[in-house]
Each structure stands twice: as structure tokens, then as C-alpha cells.
Amino acid sequence: MEEGILSRANARLDAWGAMMPYDKDNRYHRWVRTLAITVASLIIFLLVWWNLALLVGSAAIPLPMQVWDAMIDLFTYGDPVSGMSMWANISISLQRFVAGFLLAMAVAIPMGLLMGYSKTLNEFMTPTLEILRPIAPIAWAPVLLFATGYTWGPVLVVFIGIFFPLLSNTVFGVNKIDRSLVDAARTLGASNLQIFYKVMFPCALPYIMNGVRIGSGIGWMCIVASELYASYGGGIGFFVGIQASIGYWPNVFVGIAIIAVLGILTTGLFDYIHKVITRRMGME
């Protein structure tokens, strides 16, 4: 009987596919295909999670429904331990992330343009940067938290995490510029400042946005990890650390899920901007 049901279902799917064949040039077809793959991927992920939780049998790996119930309670009543709402924790982490992100852009982009433009400056700065680059940003967290406090400490950790990929991509973007464009602009009487913001920056912008996209993902890792060190001040990392210390594992997983969603939203936004810029620059 089951085989008969499956055969009839397959026949109906084949008939539907024959009536509406997939067209890769149709954006609605692409959206439906992407949605179907995404839903299937999430369902498989939940099934694996569910079975893993049953197999391990540890309180540290709760069932998906337990995490869902905990999330509803937290967003309805807030954190019973700290007394803060989840929206407040999210807001605090977002503010720190944005501050660190803007600071990294303000420093890394001009520095990258200068290093890409000047070979001497590049040779002067590279040894110091190569010493600092391999150090994990979270290694600076205890130092920065102690030195600057719980407000600026996480912000500076995010700054360090985003700074290096953004700087590297900016320098790479400048090095990829056709030098004839710079020479032509100089021949037409452009000053060094005009060459910077009318030639170098626009041409390097797709590479800069790629650095922003990569750095944003690293930035979320840094903000959460640095907040784990904080003994107060709020934030998603702070929330996860407190809940783990008292063994509220469903709440811990809620915090992890929020981090994942925030990371996906920010990197997705920057990925979209990167694609738009590269398409308009004729790089796709």
C-alpha cells in the first residue's frame, strides 16, 4: 500500500514538473527553488539536532521544542536572572557591534588606500601588521575590558576583528586598479586627493565591501566572545554566559540562535550590497 502511495505521489510530482519546468532565467523560479532548498535544509538540521539530543541524553543539548518554549518565555517575560528583556540584550550587542564596525571602517579603509597607493608606507606598516594579524581578537578581550571598561572593551575587540580583513581587502583592491586610470587622472590635472576619492576608492569599493562582508561575521564572533568575559553590562554574550553558569541550557541555545540570526542578517545585507556594487562595476 505504501509503495502505491509513493508511486502516485511521484507520478503527480512528475506531472507537475512537466507542466511547470524549471527556468533558471526566471527569478520567481529561482526564488521558489532557493526557498524549497532552504526549508529542506532547515528540516534536516532540526531532525539531526532532535536525534542527537535524544542520543546524547544530556541536559546541555535540549530538544528543539524546549528551546522554542524557552524563547517564547524569554521574549515575553524577559530574563529572570538579570531582569533584562531580550530586546535590551540584543540592543546592547548591536550598539557595540555597530560602534566597532564603524571604527574599523574609519581606520582600515583610509589606511588600506594609503598602503595600496604608497609602496614605501606598505613596506613600513606590513611587519607590524603581520605580527598582530595572527593574534585572535578574543585574546585582547581581558586586556581591553580591564583597561577601557565594559563599554569600550567589547567595541575594541570587534574593531580588531573587523580591521584586518577590511584592511587586507582594501589594499588588495587598490593593487588591482589599472594604473593607467590613475595616470590618466593625473594627466588631466587631478590632485592626489581627487585621485583618492574619484579613482581609487570607487575602483576598490567592491573589494572593500568583500572585506566588510567577511569582517561582519568575525565581528559577531568577537562581540559575543568578549561579552562572555563581562561580569555585567548586558548583551547576548553576557546572557549566554550567565545562563550557562546556572545550567539553563534551553536559554543558552536561545542566545546562540539569536547570535546566528543577527549574524545572518548583517552578513546577508552586506553580501547583497557587495553583489549590487560588483554588478554595477561590471565585475560579474
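^ that was protein a. below is b, sequence first then the C-alpha cells
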Amino acid sequence: MKQKILPDFSATLLLLCVLAGCSSVNNLPKLENNRELLPANVLELPNAGDLTLDEMETGVWIQLNPDRSLEDTQLLMERDTGPYRLGVGDELEITIYGYGEGENQRTLPIDPAGNITYMMVGTVPAAGRTIDELTEDMRARLSEELKYAILNITPYHFGSQTFTVLGQMKYPQVYPLEGRMRLLDALAKAGGTKLGEIRNVSADIHDLAHATLVRGGQVVPIDFEKLVYEADATQNLEIRSGDIIFVPSALERKIYALGSFNSPQGVQFAHSSLSLMNAVVQAGGMNTATSDGHILIIRGNTVRPKIMLMDMSQFDSKKARVFKIIGGRAMDVQLQPGDIVYAVPKKFSFAREVIKDAIRTFATTLTSDAATDIYQRDVDPFNFGTERPD
């Protein structure tokens, strides 16, 4: 009888001790054959995105290759082969030959309403049209007044279409998209990557491994290292209006704890290392109302990232797992700068859905942080915030 009751009593006592935060738990015998303590192999799964979260094994790194589960990102990479369409802020040079003596030439901007106003034809819609469409419309209008005049319209200044370069570039700012440009053209326009000085020696301070191109709120999978260091032309994507290029600093040691945390944020490495437990605590813990209890860790660039799924029930104090981690008897993941730690919301089932949402949230956070940094450095150097005096 005693032999039967004693184990149950010991287990109960141990559980009470753990929940009370007993330090003696660290001195308990180590678990034998604990699979979570074995080195995590990186599994090559080309269609990992097709797995549900329940099908994924926790605590194992998976190398995510470009696959059909992420094929919709290819739509973001297709070249825009259509003709240029005018917009508000563009300026046009309009020339009429055969009117009066010689030629008549004027430069007109497209006004905020999307129109231009020209003599004899009045107000003409221009925004959203191609040069040819606008020219044909104005020729038809002018034909009633000038039967033999020749009309010519050429772009004088492109102001409606822009792209933004942020981060560790010499001249981070908004640039006009003048004609067709590619990614290397955009980097060159921003003066190239910034160099720092360490002990009187110039050194790169940019991190191309985590550089991103954000388009329409989504990250386009571009390998900036291959583009710059290996001159890989397949990575030299054509720039579109509204694109945001962000090149982070190699000196900034930060991970991003995003998703269903109580306080999602970028978390700095206070010391030489940062663990998943540290990140969860600094992000305010899991939001139990919106989180499904999983965390997805994304490491590496967005072209071929590694992912690891963690079941947060292992950090549940009721199961004493949190104290096993603290006591070194269960796995806690050591994070690296640039990692995305994403608390998975309840609405997702498949890995591909989680990965896409995590990277999209990451892109929004990066660009927001970069824009705030520029504002505080250039516009608000004393960091007054909303209380900045006039």
C-alpha cells in the first residue's frame, strides 16, 4: 500500500513545489533520453507549407524551400509590362506645331483632381491614362479648332510614382520612379550601402542577409546577398511604384516578437544571448484570447528561411515545463539576431498561412520602425514625439 501511495504523494509534492517556484527543482535528476535535448536536425521539406500545425513536429528546424505553397508571391515578382499610366504630380510638355507662327509649347502639371487644363480644350482628365490615350483625346478636342495643327505630348517630370529606400544606405529617402528601374538601380540611386568606421578602419555596417523588399504590404522573396555579392541577375527585380527597400544594420542585435503577444515588439539582445523564454517574457507573454498556443520561429532570409514550431504548453507552469527549461532539463531555443518569433493566432491551420502572415507582419513592423527612426533623426531630433513644439 505504501509503495502505491508514495509515488503519487511524491508527484503531488513535486508539483506543489514547482508551482511555488521551489529552487530545489534544479537539483532533481536529469531526464534520460530527452528527445528535446538532442541536436535539432534541419529537415529538407520542399512542401512544408502544406503541413498543418498539428502535423508539424515541434522543436525541429525545417528548411523551407521555395515551393508551390508560396507560389502567390511569384505574382509580386512579375514584371509590369503595361505602358506607363499618368498620375497626380506628373508634369507634361505639350507642343502644338502649326499654331500661329512656329510652335506653341507649355509645361503643365497634373493637378490634385487628376486633370490638366489647356487652352482651347479646357479641363482634360489625365490621371490613369497613358500618354497615347491622352494625346488621342486632346487631338480630337483640338481638331474642331485647329484642323492642320500637330499635337505632341511628352513626359517632362515623373512625380506620381515613387519608391522608398530605408535603413543603412547613404541617402535613405523617397525617390521618383523615372521610367523603368531595377533593384540595383534603386540601391545605386540611394548612394549604395553605408560604411561605418571601427578603430579607424572602414567596415560594412549593413545586413544584406535580412534586407527586404516590401510591395503592397508583402515581402518579395529577394536574396540581396546574391544580388550584390554574386551579381545574380535573377534577383535584380524591376521596381514598382510604392516599393519599400529596407537594409537593416549589422550592428543592431534584435529579434522581432510579433503576432499574438500581449506586447509585440522588437527585442534587443541585452547580453550575448537571447532565448525564446526571454523573448516571450519581454513581449508580455502570450495573449490567451487570440493565440492558439504555438510559436513559429523564422530564421534567415525570406527566400529560403528555416522555421521551427514550438508548442507553448511546454512553458505552462501547471505542467511544470517552464521550470524544466529553467533547470536545464527541457529545451529552450537560443535565438539569433534577425529571428522572427511569431505567436500564432487561432485563425490559422496550415504552416504556409502562418509563414505568410508572420513575414507580412514583419515587413510592416520593419518599415514602420525605419520611418520612425528617420523622423526622430531628421524631423524630431530631440524626440519630442507628438509633443514637439512649433
